[in-house]
Amino acid sequence: MRIHRGAFLVNTLSDTAVLDSILADIANRGPTVEPALFTPAMLKRTRLRFNFASLRLSKGATLQHVRAASGPLRRWALSLVDTIPAALGSLRTGLYFLVMRPFDILPTLWYRLLGASLVLLREKSAGRVPPT
Fold first, then answer.
1. How far apart are CA 24 and CA 79, in angstroms?
2. Annotated domain spans of the chain
3. How many other β-carbons are positioned within 10 Å of the β-carbon of residue 23?
4. Residue 28 in contact with residue 72, Cβ under 8 Å?
5. How does pLDDT run along the chain (132 residues), one tens digit per residue?
6. What residues contact residue 48 under an 8 Å CB cut-off, 6+ apart?
7. What is the pTM of this model?
């Protein structure tokens, strides 16, 4: 997700009641529209991804809401992250990612590595990066 200030997504992720309503609507309507896509696992991951995005955007302001909607282990891990000073925002965001989206760690690393490699290859082939 790309976050642009003032966009609808920003308002949605900041307002936990609206976000909950949208996620509930997806969970209720999705499986009736496309049951093969909207599996319980997909719906759970979608909820976790959106709750992480809410934490990221709000810089932790929605933590109490996200923690209340989480299972005991995730709730405990989020409580630990909450002990990190707000001044270390990037560290907190990274830890929120690890806690909320552990299933996305390897794909994220893979796509970042692959993406960087492809950009470097493209730039080298265009002569914009000196060969190493």
1. 25
2. 8-100, 103-132
3. 16
4. no
5. 566 666 667 777 888 999 999 999 999 999 999 999 999 999 999 999 999 999 998 889 999 999 999 999 999 999 999 999 989 999 999 999 999 999 999 988 888 778 778 878 888 888 776 655
6. 100, 101
7. 0.80
